Amino acid sequence: MSQYDVLVIGAGPGGYVAAIRCAQLGLKTACIDSMVTAGGKPTLGGTCLNVGCIPSKALLDSSHYYEHLTRHVAEHGIKVSGASIDVATMMKRKDKVVQTLTLGVASLLKKNKVDTLAGHARFVDSSEVEVVSAGGASQRVSAGRFIIATGSVPAKIASAPVDDRRIVDSTGALCFDAVPARLGVIGAGVIGLELGSVWRRLGAQVTVLEALDTFLAPVDRTIAEEAFKLLTKQGLDIRLGARVTGTRQGAEGVAVGFEWQGASQELQFDRLIVAVGRKPNTQGLNVEAAGVQLDPRGFIVVDSDCRTAQAHIYAVGDVVRGPMLAHKASEEGVAVAERIAGQRPHVDFNHVPWVMYTWPEIAWVGKNEAELRAEGRDVRIGQFPFMANGRAKGMGETSGMVKMIADAATDRLLGVHILGANASELIAEATLAMAFDASSEDLALTVHAHPTLAEAMHEAALAVSQRAIHF
Ligand code: FAD
Ligand code: NAD
Asked: Is 450 part of the annotated catalytic residue set?
């Protein structure tokens, strides 16, 4: 039986990063993953690389180019005729991006001398797991420490059972073979809006059914309300407060019944994406045998250091509390590896940035205005629209704004919220500033290059003390 210092279960951004860091710190490490490609080959990188962040962003980029070419370049004097979308080529490119990155993870693990084991892990007891390969071969592996990084899977709803044909989850929506004429999406969360945007840009008529009356409940209201206007103007038909009652398959496609605005409604779709959240994945892991506890929602219970009830077993990423984000998983993975090696790492959970890759993009770090007001905080707010930013004008990307919230007494930044082109990149400045406890004045005193979108960050910081120059 193989014996390791550390056994990592799951090779997503939580697990593979933890394994590399363990090996860098001199620990004999193995990483187990059960995921296989559509062709049945073992693959590393988890949800993020195979069926999450990376393929979705590849399709968002392809569809963004297409929409830009067909709708926006004319105003630059660029004439395009006969543009069309070849879905098969777009998918092949996406698959190639995924393959390159997953093979990259394999070579990183190899370079760092991490053993990789392909198969499903199941705890036998608190010091040993059984690994069963896709072909049925079984082996026992033991270790002094374990890091559980088994991620999450799509949540299901009884009213719309996924059949992987017409009714799909996010994984299915990443590999349609044609643009559906009528696409339904259940859930106006991050997946629904990102993947709904992909297929809308390519020509689908997209209807999004959201149970809540509030659009993007976790997002700052100023940003969410503006995003709602922009996304609906683009053509996403978002129905808030829609309660899906059932689905019916027929020759015409899939009929979705829902209660909306006090009446029973039905819409026909060619494809339906169910994107109603994700749930922690501990299926078949037999954590009970290891003495590891789950909370009522199925998350592995850990303390702020990612330690379970068993001091030698840690858990990181989507399978534990906190945001289900790849970068959060990786930071926890690194911190756990360093803790195992005797170091005293720190994860700044207060400053985990969020990005939604709609266009314009939505990004934020820290708290939103409603959360701060609910806490009774006295705040000052600076806002700056991209409409007044020279670079945004030149790019033709004038939608949205930067909203900066600072403590009224200390000026310390408490939240930064962006709706705009490249918000995903701009948020890094705010994250760094907040991680260093910066004030809005610190950002206001920082020289920003001209002309850049980042100048909108500078102006929003100036606006906190009512001294924005260009608005
Ligand atoms: P995962 O990436 O889920 O990896 C867990 C791995 O463990 C899997 O490979 C699984 O096969 C393996 N495993 C599970 N159980 C066992 C077992 N018993 N034995 C062996 N192996 C096992 N996040 C972002 O930050 N940015 C984004 O842009 C983004 N986009 C996304 C888009 C989509 C469509 C989806 C679905 C998710 C997206 N996410 C994004 C979320 C992100 O993918 C997750 O937060 C991240 O992958 C979590 O990492 P993890 O390591 O915890 O788990
Ligand atoms: P989500 O929580 O973002 O959104 C789910 C939405 O579905 C919510 O608005 C919810 O109110 C709605 N909903 C739930 N049940 C419903 C029902 N029965 N009918 C209609 N609406 C219903 O979840 P998601 O979009 O599935 O994404 C899951 C997670 O994956 C995200 O929370 C995020 O952590 C991660 N993710 C991140 C990114 C990113 O960082 N850009 C991208 C994709 C996914």
From this structure: yes
